[in-house]
Design a protein that fits this description.
- The protein is built from 13 helices and 13 strands.
- By secondary structure, the protein is α/β, with parallel strands linked by helices.
- The strands form 3 sheets. Strands 1-2-3-5-4 form a 5-stranded mixed β-barrel. A 5-stranded parallel β-sheet has the order 7-6-8-9-10.
- Helix 5 links the parallel strand 6 and strand 7.
- Helix 5 runs parallel beside helix 9 and helix 6 (about 185-200) packs parallel to helix 7.
Amino acid sequence: MVNDAFQDTRSRALSVSELNHQARHLLETSFMQVWVEGELSGFSRPSSGHWYFSLKDRNCQIRCAMFRGANQRVRPAPKEGELVRIRGKVTLYENRGDFQIIVEHLEPAGAGALQQAFEALKLKLFNEGLFSTERKKTIPALPRHIGVVTSPTGAAIHDILTVLARRCPGIPVTLYPTAVQGQAATADIVAAIGRAVVHNRADVLIIGRGGGSLEDLWCFNEEAVARAIAACPIATVSAVGHEVDTTIADYVADLRAPTPSAAAEKISPDQSIWLRQLQAISERLQAAMGRQHTALENRLLQLSARLKDPRRSLQEKAQCLDGLDVRLSRAMAQMTQRLHMRTDHLQQRLAMQSPNRQLASASERVLRATTGLNLAIQQALKSRREQLDYTAQTLNLVSPLATLGRGYAIVKDDQGKIVRHAGQLEAGQAISARVASGTVHAQVTSCGQLPRLKGRGL
């Protein structure tokens, strides 16, 4: 039985490759990602660009490999004996059976505290709304003036100016120099932003620097810088580090660019595109002008065909004028002849009727008319006198004065109203009576229904 079991175990023996493969699979599934801190030892950097080193403490060490795609984000490169902190995957290098870590991120060991401070400030400003998209300003499509807050000696300003010179060299740029690393950098960056605001020339402001370690970029994680960017009335673009680097300034700025060069690319129009658009517009304009020119040329030909030769028109007018001149001369001769004949006829009639005869006849008619008019006037005056006498007699018969002459009177009260019956008067009231020869004034002593009032003068 023992021999059979031993024989069975021998028949299922693993190859070295299979064992290493299973061990690698077991390590990679058991350890997803780990953070390890230790002293860097045996650091090598072959021509392939990959990094190979060991991480050790007092008792143990472990091999590490960091491939070129990951180590390009580490600036500056680590040094032998430096205390570092790595993040990576635990695995097994099957060819040699070496237990190792494939490093994805490497930072100085002190960066852990900085990362915690970074996350705390990020959460604080997020809760205050400084990262909100609603407060972010729109970057102008065509900046009139670009401001840059960065080091005057760093690669960032060179990259920005190179891109702007290539894309749109006509946009003016003002550099607001500042330190971008070290203890004094925070206050320096805030002051540079303030100068740009006071200057009030730029309508977009690039704030940034080239890549580096977390410590190198830390001034862009400071609260004072974040609040200065948030309060800046100019549209801001954060361009800090390389593409993988992220700072608090990136979250607060109105636009985040992964690099300074990318910031210049984002905010500047491409003059080649503009030139192509202008070329297309120019071609369309030339085509339109050509069509307009052709249309006008055709119109001119049509009008030219309809337009007569001016000399021919003048000849026609001159011929017409000659005809009118002949007709006018003929008409004037005929009119003169008719006037002469009319004058002769009138002279003959004038001779036959002398003015003296006409004057004598007229004088006689005037005399007869004057005599007849005098007789008619006398007869008319006589008729009018007779009619007036008759009318006067008739009027005299019906006149109130004639009635008064027969002994009647017209009585009026003190208001001048005619009294028609005794009920209109009261005792003691003054009255007046018009008689034929004048007016009598009296006073009523009594009133009654009597045929005649008794009073003085009545």
